[in-house]
Amino acid sequence: MIKIGIFGVGHLGKFHLNNWKEMEEVSIIGFYDPHDETAAEVESKYGLKRFIRADELMDEIDAADVVTPTDKHFEICEMAIRKGRHVFVEKPLANTMQEARQLVKMAKEAAIKMQVGHVERFNPAYLALKDRSLNPMFIEVHRLAQFNPRGTEVSVILDLMIHDIDIVLSLVKSDVKNLYASGVAVMTDTPDIANVRIEFHNGCVANLTSSRISMKKMRKMRLFQKDAYIGIDFLEKKTEIIKLKDEKDQDKDFSFDLETPRGTKTIVVASPDVQPVNAIYEELHAFIQSIIQNKPTAVSEIDGLLAMEVAHTILQKIGNTQVPS
Q1: For residue 92, is the peptide bond before it cis, meaning its omega torsion is within 30 degrees of 0?
Q2: What top-level class would CATH report for the domain 2-120+280-298?
Q3: pLDDT (tens digit, 9 = 90+) per residue, 227-252?
């Protein structure tokens, strides 16, 4: 039984709490939250013990779930690592690059498990592609959200786009060669809408657009690779593949013939089976299994650091004067 302590039980923290309760491998020891009103609500609804001091809760647990505001990530994670506790921390990994690098260094030295909450890795539409060979050479991404004051303490890059940065980096597996970015602060003091072009050394190009002042919601990623197009709708939980037919394709897939200068090609349109999974549950459960089975975490602290490095480069290109170093 893994003893869990939750640090931060605000909007997202409550989602975590509800999912932890569903896991038989987990025992929730208590929570830490400095806000009396929020803490009283959680004490009353869930019957959990509130710890007034973070270090007192840390002494009682095996693993810390850090769901605090971003500017508190380093403080809580550092405490956990120094005490030898495993850590799940929401994205972004830390508030500054210096803090992120320090956490990566400490986690390695302490040999603890650390996972960063890039939850889109566990989106069922993305998981439906886990057995597919993905080698994109062009990626188009749109992540649009309606304005919500919650989460605006950071830019749209660190709030929304970082999800897609993480996925793009995990897919491409190549170093960034060039990066171009533009963005505008509309409703807050940091960029609320941004467009980014990332060129990788292997020739892949990714165009990413994120906005938190849109009239509609959209979370789509399109992958183009040799002989195939893959569309992922993270919001509607749908996946589509259009490709040249090969011997592995099933007869049930829709197909049609297309005349080309090189002869007749058979095009297959497939919709992979998307299982209705709870992404937050899946990421938290994966973290617990990495502890129990002593295996690498699904989204490591290094993954979190790499996504932050690209995100902060974007902010510097845009010229955001408030980007923390």
Answers
A1: yes
A2: alpha beta
A3: 889 999 999 999 999 876 665 555 55
